[in-house]
């Protein structure tokens, strides 16, 4: 989708991080924006900043893990601008821990946002794009959707699934001869607040304090926060995504060395070896 000027982008998780950077980039390219996020105040602040730059923005508070709320987002987007052309299923949370110590709530929270958020986004918006035979979808996965590091079971599972859904859809669009495109974004460390995602964890999916386990989780979170601080800027990720949309590029590997990490995993699979030890995001 080379010419995006005057067209409409829906971006979930649009109030911060990669989502807000995507909003800035596509807004600067002349797109009208539908920003969705679960954080009410942050969403309002992001919209105000974008409008200050002359970008047309409509906001809709949305918990992407709730299918009814994503249905409402789709209806609101069409009511606001009449059509949708670009969909960035970007909302996500970080969560994990040692696999044997994870609770059902841990899995439900991460999979609810990271996986079901994409599923709902695809269910709601893909038929719109197919009906007009125009548009593009960007699903935010992670390098954790291509290589699986330790202590990240729910996150890895969610992101591997997002990659699989995206690959499946790419093949279907090819078979249909559709003009709709799709990309899957697989970054390594990016300077976002994903390590602080628990601020938005629903009360019903929080664990009871458990002492030693909480201490371990805090240590892991601190290590990840340090790696994120040294990561790529969200604006650079957004630039690469915009280029991928224009070129109809499927895999968006944002970091130098990412391809070698994937190659090492593929070689281990072919050789029947253990998976390489990696710590992706």
Question: What does this molecule look like?
Answer:
With 281 residues, the protein is of the alpha/beta class. The protein has a single domain (8-271), classed as Rossmann fold, CATH 3.40.50.720. 49% of the residues lie in helices and 11% in strands. It contains eight helices and seven strands; from the N terminus they run βαβαβαβαβαβααβα. It has helices at residues 17-28, 40-52, 67-81, 104-132, 153-176, 212-229, 234-247, 258-271; strands at residues 8-12, 32-37, 57-61, 86-89, 136-140, 181-185, 251-252. α4 links the parallel β4 and β5 (136-140). The model has no long low-confidence stretch (mean pLDDT 93).
CATH architecture: 3-Layer(aba) Sandwich
Q: Give the helices and strands as they follow along the chain.
A: EHEHEHEHEHEHHEH
Count of separate DSSP helical elements: 8
Write down the CATH topology: Rossmann fold
User: Which structural class do the helices and strands define?
Assistant: alpha/beta
Count of extended strands: 7
Helix % is: 40-55%
Q: In what range is the share of β-strand residues?
A: 5-15%
CATH superfamily: NAD(P)-binding Rossmann-like Domain
Overall 3D form: globular
How many separate structural domains? 1
The end-to-end distance, rounded to whole angstroms, is 28 Å
* Biggest sheet strand line-up: 3-2-1-4-5-6-7
CATH top level assignment: Alpha Beta
């Amino acid at each position: 989708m080379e010419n995006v000027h005057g067209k409409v982008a829906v971006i979930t998780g649009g109030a911060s991080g990669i989502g807000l950077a995507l909003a800035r980039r596509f807004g600067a390219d002349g797109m009208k924006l539908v920003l969705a996020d679960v954080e009410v105040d942050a969403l309002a602040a992001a919209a105000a900043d974008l409008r200050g730059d002359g970008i047309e923005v409509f906001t809709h508070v949305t918990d992407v893990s709730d299918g009814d709320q994503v249905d409402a987002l789709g209806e609101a987007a069409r009511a606001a601008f009449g059509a949708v052309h670009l969909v960035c299923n970007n909302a996500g949370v970080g969560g994990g821990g040692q696999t044997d110590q994870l609770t059902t709530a841990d899995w439900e929270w991460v999979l609810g946002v990271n996986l079901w958020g994409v599923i709902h986004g695809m269910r709601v918006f893909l038929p719109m794009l197919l009906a007009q035979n125009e548009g593009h979808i960007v699903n935010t996965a992670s390098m954790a959707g291509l290589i699986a590091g330790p202590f990240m079971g729910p996150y890895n599972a969610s992101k591997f699934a997002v990659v699989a859904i995206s690959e499946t859809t790419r093949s279907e669009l090819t078979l249909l001869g559709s003009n709709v495109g799709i990309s899957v974004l697989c970054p390594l460390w990016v300077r976002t607040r994903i390590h602080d995602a628990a601020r938005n964890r629903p009360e019903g999916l929080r664990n009871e304090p458990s002492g030693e386990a909480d201490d371990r989780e805090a240590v892991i979170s601190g290590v990840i926060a340090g790696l994120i601080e040294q990561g790529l800027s969200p604006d650079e990720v957004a630039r690469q995504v915009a280029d991928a949309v224009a070129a109809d590029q499927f895999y968006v590997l944002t970091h130098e060395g990412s391809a070698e990490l994937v190659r090492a995993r593929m070689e281990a699979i072919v050789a029947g070896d253990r998976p390489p030890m990696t710590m992706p995001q």
